Amino acid sequence: MKTDSSIADIFAVDQKTHVARPLFTCGVSAGFPSPAEDHIDRKLDLNELLIPHPTSTFFVRVAGDSMTNAGINNGDILVVDRSIEATSGKIIIAIVNGELTVKRLIQNHTSCRLVAENSDYPSLEITEETDFRVWGVVTSVIHQF
């Protein structure tokens, strides 16, 4: 059985520079190309899109592959908002027994689990004996090719 993924780095948000780029209002065709300039409607600033709460948002680099089926890969950057409430079904950054991890939170009236999105990894049942805290909620994934 593999060991859980962890968090490689945590970075604070620095919003000194705003760069608004053209946003195309049409979808990108995977078939016959069409001229795109007719479809530029407005500008998109990635800071505004990804960081609605700058003082409580951080970037976290993933180390490991336990969340690949959720589209989170080794080396990806997660946008994490600490002001959002962690509810069942959300992907969270948690501190479990002193270690940071990224998992899906599944909870009901009687149980709480952290679930990996890779069948090679087991779920972690959170009990009264588990040192567990939610650090933040993942809102976006930045994946580079």
Automatic annotation (TrEMBL):
One of its GO terms (biological process) is regulation of DNA-templated transcription. Pfam families: Peptidase_S24. It comes from the Bacteria. Signal peptide: none annotated. The keyword Aminoacyl-tRNA synthetase does not apply. GO terms for molecular function: DNA binding; hydrolase activity. InterPro entries: LexA-like, LexA/Signal_pep-like_sf, LexA_repressor, Peptidase_S24_LexA, Peptidase_S24_S26A/B/C. Residues 27-138 form the Peptidase S24/S26A/S26B/S26C domain. Its EC number is 3.4.21.-. Keywords: Autocatalytic cleavage, DNA damage, DNA repair, Hydrolase, SOS response. It is an enzyme of class 3 (hydrolase). Gene3D superfamilies: Umud Fragment, subunit A (2.10.109.10). Belongs to the peptidase S24 family. This is DNA polymerase V. The lineage of its organism: Bacteria, Pseudomonadati, Thermodesulfobacteriota, Desulfobulbia, Desulfobulbales.
